[in-house]
## 1
Amino acid sequence: MFIALVAIVYIPVQVMAWGQQGHRISGQIADSYLNPKARKAIQGILGNESIAMASNWADFIKSDSTYNYLYNWHFVNFDKVMTEPEMEAYLKVDTIADAYTKVTFLTAELKKKTLSAKNKLLYLRMLIHIVEDIHQPLHTGHLSDKGGNDIKVLWMNNPSNLHSVWDSQLIDFQQLSYTEYVAAINHTTAAQRAEWQKAPLTHWLYESNQLAQKLYADIKPDEKLSYRYNFKYIETVNQQLVKGGVRLAGLLNQIFG
Ligand code: ADE
Ligand code: ZN
Ligand code: ZN
């Protein structure tokens, strides 16, 4: 009875990121596009931890208050509708701790030869995770509803929220292991990868925010989401998982290659 009660109390306060599967999928996809030099350097930092498994560290440590300062690194909120130039101008003067400023910071730090082994590991795990997170559209959503966490919905008749549907539920609904999922969706051409990778970080966020706006416009509070919603959006989910992985590989190749 006590255990059941704890479970009931705790489920609604979970505020996570692409769920574990989403992160592993994008991480494994990134791994498949590393150049040999980057792969070797990353192995030197992560040891036997694969990129797929390293991808979830930033969510696991949320249980330890030592790491509370990392909480805002997982998302960038945009409460106003912005054109791409408006978003670029906004981000250029952004100084708060968010996914944009931290991806920029972590990229610069990881390029430094003088970085301590401890920070190399922390920064690499965080960079991997955040690049994946920002491809979940609702990690670039409104602050006012916590990226959709406050938009209650039913998923297959169970209480959930819009953010969680996009972090986990659509992905888990496919009932694939993360390696099966990667095998199913990791089909890209070199030209496609080059196009995705050459776009700047501001464009990754713009694209993700454009999708977030579509999702906000297409939801009503307490809406019942099921097979129809899955059918409508699973391609978008998969595209964002692949893009996140491809862009993460591009960034890691640039840092370590
Ligand atoms: N998770 C918790 N708060 C969030 C927010 N404001 N935006 C996106 N994801 C979140
Ligand atoms: Zn996260
Ligand atoms: Zn999330």
## 2
Amino acid sequence: MRKQIAAANWKMNLTLAEAHELIDLLLQQPLSIEAHQQVLIATPFPYLIPIQQKLANSQIKCCAQNIASTQNGAFTGETSAEIVNSLHINYAIIGHSERRELFHEDHSVLALKVNQALAHSVHPVFCCGEPLAIREAGTQNSYVETQLTESLFHLDAEQMKQCIVAYEPIWAIGTGKTASSEQAQEMHAHIRAVIAAKFGSEVAETVSILYGGSVKASNAIELFAKPDVDGGLVGGASLNAVEFAAIINALK
Ligand code: PGA
């Protein structure tokens, strides 16, 4: 069975003291994390080391929220995949819709970020997903396909297997409006078919495809029960230890 993954995306939230408190509370919850399951927490960069240390005796791993598109050099304020890897962090979110929209990250920059991640043993958690206008026009499948082809399809099959895809319809992020489990399944099956057409079905069956967009304890079981939904990328609800623990325990 491919990995079932619950990934927390803290975004730009929590002081360090609050982050410690949240992890303490999370570790007090009854968590069942099996060998085919993975829990990730994408913290702000400065917290990667302290939170990773705190998680050392758990099965939970830290994840970066972004990485640079270049290897190193005069790029003030950026953090490279090489730096992230040197902290023993092996996951990074790439292409979150907030990065695409607010920081103007386009397909080609994201392709470079994916290359940097893979060159430094960092698994990309590659985000895709359509805005509301595209969903209303009914063209979401080709929109998401373009996001995948433009930023991932230069990879070889072995590299593609290192990637995790997160489908996050923009109209569902932070809005409390979740895609229905049927809408999620339909898109996840499409994404898997697109990956299969390019890389073959063995690769497509290996890649975990997470759903993101207002995942909560109350909808996680139904979403994760769908055959092509391999877990979730969770924003708001991951800031609550009890909610996030329930989401972890909803993994297949
Ligand atoms: P949300 O965010 O769970 O708060 O909708 C998800 C995300 O942006 O990754």
